[in-house]
Amino acid sequence: MLLPRPVLRPPLSHLRSALSQARRARGVHMLRDLPPVTHAQLADTDKTRKPRLLPIDGAPRSAPAAFSPSHHLCQWTRPPESVLLVQKKDDSRVQAAMAEILGFLTTHYPHLRLIVEPHTAREQSQFPNLTVFNEITDSPVKLLDNTDFVITLGGDGTVLHASQLFSRTECPPVLCFSLGSLGFLLPFKVQDIDRALHYILGDGEVEILNRMRLNALAVDSQGRTLSRMPESGWQVMNEVCLHRGRYPHLPSVDVYYNNQHLTKGLVSLRAVHTKLTTGGRLPPLYPNWINSLLIIGWRVAHASRDRRRHADPDRTPVIVIPTTGPAGRRTSEARQVSLDGRDVCELHAEESVLIRKSIYPIPCVDQPGGGTGWVRDINSTKH
């Protein structure tokens, strides 16, 4: 009786080597395979580490974290070398625009490293030399070190996703193309791709509008950062939400400002600073007019005008402490902290969240000359 010949399988290391060779053959690289930043580069941030888009109007020549939340005329310290392209998923119009941008950059700026997410690499397989960033496996610091600016294609949610990719760090300049239903955060139309790319990649001045972000930091009763949180906290573009999560009871919270008790309630509490409405309880808001958190019922919101109580997170953090359970009783139930729609951690007894203005805004590339193009976008959406 003849026994079946055993199937010889190559070692796992050989399979990984073959996969790596296949990636190199088709020109696709992984961000994690790029060399790390050296100590010398970290010590010389203005020249060696990476190109920066810095103010030329007398502002300090430092990271974008030093910018005030207003317009700045900026210029590259040297030509940018890499760009992260972020797109809305499962949209044929966005896919076509992404193909146009990749083709333009490959033709006119072949020196640029093009960093994309895995779904973009799959959809745009006709383009060689793409560098793939995986949000789950790659370090956000590695992404920041290798990204000089960001291009977004989609709606406001795509800008929010780009902000989340840099939620633990400063955010590079963001060039936003409007392919969604609202252009509040998206100053450039997709028809202007060529002009916009020459604008940000040229030698001239670039208009930057720094959009405020919140900083949320979870601490224990001694004010020490929780081990499950980044040391610098999370940078939040839209909202901080404290909710009951999987537990049956709503959280009871105490809110403090400037060491004074501000309010208390048995509610789901939300801190919002870029809330935009066109006919609801709040007026349309421009997120750089007033850097404040406004208490609306049991909601905390960023508003331009209202007669109710508000706090200034630029000066003092707003402290939110889950204190009691139903009917004022102490509870062991944890409370879920959600940042920009993502659950990040739970708060247990004697733990709290500090909410303040982040030192890391979102530097958005604006139309030349600034202006009020966002007003026209809002008005056109209302009709």
TrEMBL record:
One Pfam match: NAD_kinase
Q: What is this protein called?
A: NADH kinase
* Protein family according to the UniProt entry: Belongs to the NAD kinase family.
Can you tell me which residues the record assigns to a coiled coil?
none
Enumerate the Gene Ontology biological process terms: NADP+ biosynthetic process
GO MF terms, alphabetically ordered = NAD+ kinase activity
Where are the stretches annotated Disordered? Answer: 307-330
Species, as recorded: Trichosporon asahii var. asahii (strain ATCC 90039 / CBS 2479 / JCM 2466 / KCTC 7840 / NBRC 103889/ NCYC 2677 / UAMH 7654)
